[in-house]
Amino acid sequence: MELCEQKHLGCESGNTGVPDVYEVFSTAYGNGEVSRGIRAKQSISRGVLVEVAHCIQISKYEYEHHLRHSVLENYLFVGRNGGMLLALGAASLFNHSKQPNLNYTIDHEQLVIRFRAARDIAPNGELTITYGSDSKLWFKDMSVISAESSVSMLHDYLDDETLFLASLQI
């Protein structure tokens, strides 16, 4: 509770000192897919602890033979000795950004990941982390497409209404 008193943010009872500052949202794309993310319910000051995610430790063997070949691979954090960590709670819903507004630290001994605001975040701002370099991304990072390539991509999609609508980010 000390953190909340220091930062003057209200905490939910039993929330181990993590302020109640975010909510889950969903976005439907033109192709029928739904994506979820996390947004701020109120202003969040730099340094505020936003989430403490308890993790399930996954051995190198379990990862290589099972989870690496499943959708869960996209939600894992790097653990020790070739193993991985599955973060529980809202942590697996933080979306990627090249300029994330959350930093995180992994406590391998306690099997938790702590997420803190890297800078001040406005209400309704999406809370984001970085997933790493472009070579580690399994999707096309739309936030880094240049204006020239956007026009080219838009031109390519004009013939296919579904692709065109899915390419728009509103």
Short description:
This protein is α+β, with helices and mostly antiparallel strands and 170 residues long. It contains 4 helices and 9 strands; from the N terminus they run H-E-E-E-H-E-E-E-E-E-E-H-H.
Notes on the protein architecture:
The structure is a single chain. 18% of the residues lie in helices and 28% in strands. It is of the alpha+beta class and 170 residues long. It folds into two domains: 2-133, SET domain (Beta-clip-like), CATH 2.170.270.10; 140-170, no CATH class. It has a five-stranded antiparallel beta sheet. The protein has a two-stranded antiparallel sheet with strand order 1-2. The radius of gyration is 18 Å and the shape is globular. The model is unreliable at 1-15, 135-139 and 141-170 (pLDDT under 50).
